[in-house]
Amino acid sequence: MIVISVKQLLGATTQFGAGASLGRDHFAQIVERIRQAQATTADDLVCFDYTGVEDVSASYVKATLLAVHQCGRLAAGTLSAGEVLGARASIMPLEVVVLAFGTNDDVKVCLNDVFAANGLAILAADVDSNGQFVGAELLGVTEAKAFRTLQLAARYDEVTATLLHSANSAELNGVTGWNNRLAELHRQLLLRRQTSGRQHTYRPLVKGEIRYGKVLSRK
Amino acid sequence: MSAPSEIQSITTEDAGHIRGAIAAGRLTTSESNGQQTQLTLTAAVELAGYLAQANGTMETVRTALGQLVNGCPRFRAAAQILEGRSTEASLLFDGHEVELHRIGKMDSTDVVWNDYLQRFSDALIGKGMDKKFARGLAMSLHEMADNVAEHAMENGDNIPRNVAGWHAFQGGAAFVVLDLGRGIRRSLAENPQWSKLASDRESLRMILRRHATRRIGLAEGNGFKDVVKNFVERNGVLRIRSGTCEVVAEGTLTDSRERYIALPEFAGTRASAWCRPYSKIIGEEP
User: Fold this and answer.
1) Contact assignment for A59 to B222 by CB distance below 8 Å
2) B187-216: per-residue pLDDT in tens?
3) Cβ–Cβ of B143/A19 closer than 8 Å?
4) Which domains does chain A have, with CATH numbers?
5) Which residue of B has its CA nearest to A118?
6) List of residues 6+ apart from A67 with CB closer than 8 A
């Protein structure tokens, strides 16, 4: 996993994670870091660590976390031309999936606002005392069926449509249906996918309990 | 002929009205009565904007404003920044802190800006605000100023013709951001969704109501939304002036009360806000 410490990015100059200008500057550093990491490993999980960050602005999030997310979606072929034009940074294809952790309530509210406004979702992972991801909140928006599928997938280290069908056929009868749901979650960068022949295997970004993010207010 | 009372009356008027007063010849003397003229931060910066726009060709403006230039430190400091003669000014006026700053790159190399923002936050905490609130206000100022920096960059304008100012007072805060750029309506016209707005008034209304943005493909802009959340919803007022209109907004994002005022053309944009979060009365801008 490739960890991006937002506090470290901000640390030298400012405590304010605000503004598209600063965000674009940090985005360039983040992309460089991802490329360096991917030159030596095949890791595609980029984790934005917000530990120690008190608050962030929507513009900053759009130019950093959302921009990297858009890079991942561009690589996955799910980013529209309009989204590329509207991006706050220079989007390029990157083979990544993205999550956040170490987020306080204020940061979560901002991530939720940004991703919801763009019809997207992202996981804010829970970290235990050993630094392991043990669950996550889903911020932003996704359909109820997709969310349920994500919850089920997060029970396993890896999962296939066949496995979900055999364990949950009462919910949805048909391997194709489960396959469609898993594929959709992959398109949303909420699951990783490996393909072997005609078989797709999916891996959750976080194993454990996945729940909807609480509706929070900045006030 | 310029009685102190006339000078005093200017201080409560909008800068556009002041220009009208200048044009009407009501401000042609610069007699000093030895007192400092106090303009609101908004008026001081906007007047300085007029001066900078005049670009030395409207000597009558400078002459007419001589009294204000000499008498109002806020105005003098803003004018010096907009004319490129200084980059930062720190004032103490009636015991309240005011700082003005020329907006630069605002990226991670802009240490001076980050220090400036930090001082705003620290000043607010020093005036009794809680840390979280102070941080929110500072971030709002940053967002507004960042918009200006972005416009300047995309216009290929290497000469910063803009200024930000903050003012911390007991129980409240104010800020202003002014740029001498193309204005909101022309900026929004970059986005086909907003390219056919009929007037400056409509442009301002779409910014506030629909969070209109010039960025094609972006769902909505956030700069003004943040300001409304952090200032207006905390017993405050937001004023945005661009082109021939000014909007004065109070209330909340979902229930805003807006007044639109027709003003003389101003080739640029000025956004200012103030709030008194611990008071029940919004009151006049300090």
Assistant:
1) yes
2) 888 888 888 888 999 999 988 888 777 777
3) yes
4) 2-142 (no CATH), 144-204 (1.10.10.10)
5) B219
6) A23, A27, A87, A88, A89, A91
